Amino acid sequence: MNYPIQNFCMYQRSILGNIEKHLFHGDVIMLIGPRQVGKTTLVESLVSKIPDVGNILKILADRYQSEKQVIVTGSSTLGLLDQTSEPLTGRKRVFHLYPIAFEEIVSTSGMRDAETLFESTMTYGSYPQVLSFPDAESKIRKLQDLVSDQLYRDILEFQEIKNPDILSKLLEMLALRVGSEISYQSLARELGVSQQTVEKYVDLLEKSFVVFRLRPYMTNKKKEIVKMKKIYFYDLGIRNALLRNFNPLSLRGDIGALWENYFILERRKIIAYHELRFEQRFWRTKAQEKIDYLEIGAGIENAFECKWKEQKYRAPKAFSWEYPDTEVRLAHSGNYGNFLFCP
Fold first, then answer.
1. Would you tell me how many other CB atoms lie within 10 Å of the CB of residue 232?
2. Per the count of CB atoms within 10 A, which of 66, 219, 315, 317 is most buried?
3. Helices (H) and strands (E) in the chain — how many of each?
4. Rounded to the nearest 5 degrees, what angle is found at the Cα of 23, between the Cα atoms of 22 and 28?
5. Rounded Cα–Cα distance for residues 282 and 212 (Å)
6. What's the half-sphere exposure (Cβ side, CA atoms, 13 Å) at 185?
7. What is the pLDDT of residues 67-94, one digit of tens each?
8. How far is Cα 39 from Cα 44, in angstroms, rounded to an integer?
9. Nearest to 104 by CA among 128, 80, 122
10. Residue 328 in contact with residue 305, Cβ under 8 Å?
11. Cα angle 87, 93, 97; round to 5
């Protein structure tokens, strides 16, 4: 279904400067990310799928070097990176474009507009076209189209999926478990499939930029968990569309999970766009003490606990004992601007 675009959102993309620094140095620029986040708009070109694309791009990169710049876009890593990994070894730069970031709204329209759009992006996500619609009905229709027609397209094109209905059910289950630790064995039992099938499908969903996983951080393997993972969505509008829940934030029972996903996703964008060498992790002990979110560099660079409402907070004793130099900060709906914008 085609929608009329009114005042299409042209946000200043934070990643643009990073790409410009690497132009005309003989590398192929690869811009990856979910569908419809603005990849084609950003590079002002459209690249269709080409057989043996890796070797063709290698020839172009070798032939033209500093004279011309090859830029390739793709909405998953299933085909593009797999097909080009060997031919373009040492000849490519990969950049990841996300749905519109909070800091991009701030840079374009100012903090006041960003704060005005905050609840909307928590509910309807931040795909550029969704942001451009002025009314909730149009936003919801677009998100429903994305979920029904385009969400699985790359997976179905590049992989032999025997049970597309299972994939759809799995995604709903993951949407309900945002912020919780995931057991593949439990998911497999509920779906009536093997654990290997669940692991494969989650991996495909991650490679198609639908979800991303957070692994636990541990230095003390006797006390800290090792195997469990958390799963978050690249866009909350997609997550809410899967659950058919677009209720306002004040009426939602899942506001804590929404806020945690939003905060960690926005920090993920900051890490990518500012080229920070951080890994995203969470922390929990076998005694159920936890920290929602860590950024790991040489050590623990940043630690956050996500709560929708401001409240008194003290880090778990086990964490403070194990990592005495790390301050755990509370990220809530009243102070998020301090952490989601890098001036």
1. 22
2. 315
3. 15, 10
4. 85
5. 13
6. 2
7. 555 566 655 555 555 554 544 555 667 7
8. 8
9. 128
10. yes
11. 125
